[in-house]
Amino acid sequence: MTAPFSTAWVRTTRFGTLAAVPMPSGLEPVGQEVLAQLHPREAALATAERGRRQIELAGGRLAWRAAAKERGLDGSFPLLADSARAPLPPPGFSVSLTHKEDLALALVAPDADGLVGIDLEGGARDRSSIRTRVCRPEELREVDALAEAERWPNVMVRFAVKEAVYKAIAPRLGRFFGFQAARVDVLSREAARVTMFLEPDDPAFDVECALEWLDDGRLLAMVRAQVTSARR
Ligand SMILES: CC(C)(COP(=O)(O)OP(=O)(O)OC[C@H]1O[C@@H](n2cnc3c(N)ncnc32)[C@H](O)[C@@H]1OP(=O)(O)O)[C@@H](O)C(=O)NCCC(=O)NCCS
What we know:
The protein is an alpha+beta fold. Helices cover 30% and strands 30% of the residues. The chain has helices spanning 32-35, 40-47, 51-70, 131-134, 137-144, 148-173; strands at residues 9-13, 16-22, 80-81, 87-88, 93-100, 103-110, 115-121, 182-186, 192-196, 204-213, 219-229. α2 (40-47) packs antiparallel against α3. Coenzyme A (COA) binds at residues 56-57, 60, 81, 84-87, 97-99, 119, 162-163, 165-167, 170-171, 177-179, 181-182.
């Protein structure tokens, strides 16, 4: 068991360097010894927040620093955020963060390979009722045809992949887009395919995705989006 706010692991994935940092439960303010491991501007972002948000901000930034170090970045670059909360990565890189309950994850990749997005979702509780919000009509038909026990894992894949897609693409588009803007075809427990349905004037994206199930049943979705034409 890795101590909270220490690096649990860093590894190379298909889409870049992935780092994991456990977070403590509760609402205790993040200690000075943890804040001291962040860039001062990242520490300032964390101390401007309270409770879980402060813990998540510190956990995510520590995971980013662990992945960045593995890629040879020297730690002098603070990972700040734009007004929509999207991370502002160093030149030449794409960065995505996710945090859920006791775990924060960061994916760092060269932006020449595409824009990355990650999302950690799930757990034991069945939340398949979110499917009407998350699914396009054709996806909903597929989900509703499944046996009840298969629905939540299937919806979880669609939800996690779509949130990861949003994190990868929204900073490039510079605007919000909802769940109807992507269709996720669930090919197996480990594989899914993404088709984008953006506005006619938006760039066209080719999106690859990878799914990893953690031992506790949570799902990590990772995507990489490449612009295939600046405007359709
Ligand atoms: C933004 C959103 C995807 C975040 O997901 P979440 O499950 O709430 O939170 P997570 O813990 O997984 O991720 C949070 C991290 O996402 C990143 N993030 C937040 N907004 C972002 C944005 N606009 N663009 C890129 N990354 C963003 C941040 O790094 C944030 O962590 P930080 O604030 O500590 O830096 C979600 O709240 C949302 O708005 N979803 C609706 C939009 C959507 O998914 N559309 C579907 C398109 S097909």
